[in-house]
Amino acid sequence: MFENLGDRLQNAINKIKGYGKITEENISEISREIRLALLEADVNYQVVKEFINNVKEKALGEEVAKSLKPGEMFVKIVKDELVDLLGGEKKDLNINGNPSILMLVGLQGSGKTTTIGKLGNLLRKKYKKNPLLVACDVYRPAAIDQLKQLGKELNLTVYSEEIKDPVTISKNALKFAKENNYDYVLIDTAGRLHIDESLMQELQNINSEIKPQEVLLVIDSMIGQDAVNVINGFNEKLPLTGAILTKLDGDTRGGAALSIRHLTNVPIKFIGVSEKMDGLEEFYPERMATRILGMGDIMTMLEKAESVIDQDEAVRAAKKMQKGNFDLEDFLGQLKQIKKLGPLENIMKMLPGVPKEVKNAKIDPKDLAHVEAIIQSMTKEERRNPSILKASRKIRIAKGSARSVEEVNRLLKQFEQMKMMMKQFNKGNFKMPF
Question: N or C: which end of the chain has fewer CB within 10 A?
């Protein structure tokens, strides 16, 4: 996500940090690099032009000229302009109503049906809602089957009927939701390969009948600048309240996200960041801007951790660390918790100040699986007291985990080094080894 753009922008602003003062000449040089980076990321030309003009105008202003650290001021200007480009303030989902109604629309293949499952999952987990999923894509039987399968997987109710009238289905679903105490209704609608009159008329009819609080357009971020045309096409006929950008994890350019709000005035409310059912994130313009500029995204990481990590287990492990009683049994528990956060390289990218080579390092999930296998091949006594692990036990553990004795020894050595570091931290006399 934004990988190429992020690298290019970070290289440009790192140059400006090294300048003792800001001049028209070096601002023009950096602006050229930023312009090229944005254009190559498939950002709309008009958006790029306005962005660069705003950055140059502010960078050459009196406030920057008088600053003790003009390079840092320039970075702040770029970040603020990026935030503004992405929509400024976060736009919250409307969760008021009895029940609240949300209609998802979009072209065929944009990921509507999968997204409605992810959205239902998020509404239940984060907002403690009881959502009802409604199958109104009556022309594609596979869509109804897919939604039912997602409902089964997520333990969410799916409402469907054997008729071909989506307006009647949505009206009956709303009645069903009220009678059965569902407080959020998510309508999955039909898509087409392109915008046409019959599709829009059908969506307008559903909208007139059930009057949803939210009409969200699901759009594949991989279509690039054409996203703007799709949004405008839907927005002319429907009162869009927001957009959901899917497959953003597979789009290393990200131009659609940087062009949409500025050119359509439709806010991005969610982004799809993985194929998993928890792979939908609320969209925060500021957090996304800091992520693009390599400043990390601690808040998103903390929220993710809060939602998936067992707090009691984390507190218990922290106390054992402080007392120096942390063992391999605890370490195994922590590994399992960390895996819930997703790929480690994604976590690294959210941390500020992590060197680029570490952020871009490919961490093979198999390595964690190997560590787990080694620890799981130990007895409880061995996990709690690794000092009893002599040669014969290590050979048994290596065979049981299908790893080598060398890997078992390496893990034990690294674990002992980690425990030593914890003791140093707790004594308050830890010194960096450089």
Answer: C
Residue showing tokens 């004795």: 405
Q: What is the pLDDT of residue 434?
A: 32
Distance CA 407, CA 189 (A): 53
Q: Tell me the chain's radius of gyration from C-alpha atoms.
A: 26
Q: DSSP labels for 270-337?
A: EEE--SSTT-EEE--HHHHHHHHTT---HHHHHHHHHHHS-HHHHHHHHHHHHHT---HHHHHHHHHH
Extract the tokens encoding 183.
């407080």
Mark residue 316 as left, alpha or beta (left: phi above 0; alpha: psi -120 to 50; beta: remaining): alpha
Judged by DSSP in three states, 370 sits in helix
Annotate 236-261 with b (16+ C-beta within 10 A) or e (fewer). Answer: ebbebbbbbbbbbbebebbbbbbbbb
Residue closest to 105 by CA, chosen among 192, 183, 210 = 192
Going from the C-alpha of 27 to that of each of 16, 69, 290, 300, 319, the distances in angstroms are 8, 15, 21, 32, 51
Of the pLDDT bands very low, low, confident and very high (cuts 50, 70, 90), residue 432 is very low
Q: Which residue has the higher pLDDT, 149 or 287?
A: 149
Contact in structure between 215 and 103 (CB atoms under 8 Å) = yes
Q: Which two tokens stand for residue 28?
A: 């023009």
Between 381 and 340, residue with greater pLDDT:
381
Measure Cα distances from 309 to 36, 106, 274, 365 in Å. 41, 34, 19, 19
Higher pLDDT, 269 or 317: 269
Identify the residue whose tokens are 């560590």: 371
Kindly give, in sequence order, each residue whose CB lies less than 8 Å from that of residue 131, ignoring residues fewer than 6 positions away. Answer: 119, 120, 123, 124, 156, 182, 183, 184, 185, 186
Which tokens in the block code for residue 27? 């601002």
